[in-house]
Amino acid sequence: MRIAALLSLLLLSFTSIAQTTVNVYSFRQPFLIEPILKTFTEETGIETRVVFAKKGLIQRLKREGQLSPADVVLTSNFAKLMQLKQEGLTQAYGLNGIEENVPKQFRDSEQQWLALTKRVRNVYSSKERQGKLNINYEDLADDKFKGKICTRSGKHPYNLGLIASMIVHNGEAQTKQWLKDVKENLARKPQGNDRAQVKAIKEGLCDVSLGNSYYLGKMLQDENQIPWANAVELNFPNQDNRGSHINVSGVVIAKYAPNKAAAQQLLAFLTSDKAQSLYAKLNMEYPVNPSVEASTLVKSWGEFKEDSISLEKIAAEVPNALKLVDEVKFDL
């Protein structure tokens, strides 16, 4: 069943809740979510009420328990999707037909979470000192990059996801050695966010960095950061083998959602062509819905091969990834 048909059925089935409000807890920023939710309300008549926060929403859900007003939780990375499920704060979304909009790789096998957008963990390189690179993540351990790498904390979810994927592909021992060697190649202690690493390349502090691709688009939208973006090349790693590592933003239905039927409608809408196009346009992320194209700017960065490994396999190795980061004292 096409998701549009599914949404239509839901609309017919739940006309009695047309005035229901969906309560959303969002780790994602207002500039991205508000236009999408506004469109949802225009199409369904269902209002939304959103609590935005970068931190603390999971603790809030736990504290509120059965009295929580939250129906839906939007996350900015898959680590929080896994945490929500592991801590028993989700319930099955129960949307038959959703597989046409969200490939199996990006769905929980127990229907506890859905991915909504894809983020690629890229390698940025100095246009002036390195140029465009044909590079693997494994190459960052090479002596030729000694003193030339910048990165944010190894404990950040974006890096933990990458390290976990390397454990899946290369094993724990090999990944630990890779982390040791990358640490030896760092130009400075891990610090800042992904954009701070590109700024450091512009300032000549390092030549390469790890960073999600959509940050390049965000820097190009900020006149103060355009010089940073113009100083780097965007490289998709591991194109001759397994493909580039993919992280995701996603969504769950809260365990005690007071308005589950309306929450289901919101999830169906968020994976629809219209909402996925808005995600692509507003934040330069890759749509998880295979029928929706990336934005014009993102497409200009070129096609690439994705790592097809399931997020569940990566998630299982995240605790080991964190252990390795501590064992090699990556951030110290």
UniProtKB/TrEMBL annotation:
Belongs to the bacterial solute-binding protein 1 family. One of its GO terms (molecular function) is metal ion binding. One of its GO terms (cellular component) is outer membrane-bounded periplasmic space. Keywords: Iron, Metal-binding, Signal. SUPFAM superfamilies: Periplasmic binding protein-like II. PANTHER family: IRON-UTILIZATION PERIPLASMIC PROTEIN, THIAMINE-BINDING PERIPLASMIC PROTEIN-RELATED. This is Iron(III) ABC transporter, periplasmic iron(III)-binding protein. Pfam families: SBP_bac_6. Fe cation binds at Y214, Y215. Residues 1-18 form the signal peptide. The keyword Signal applies. It comes from Bermanella marisrubri. Transmembrane segments: none annotated.
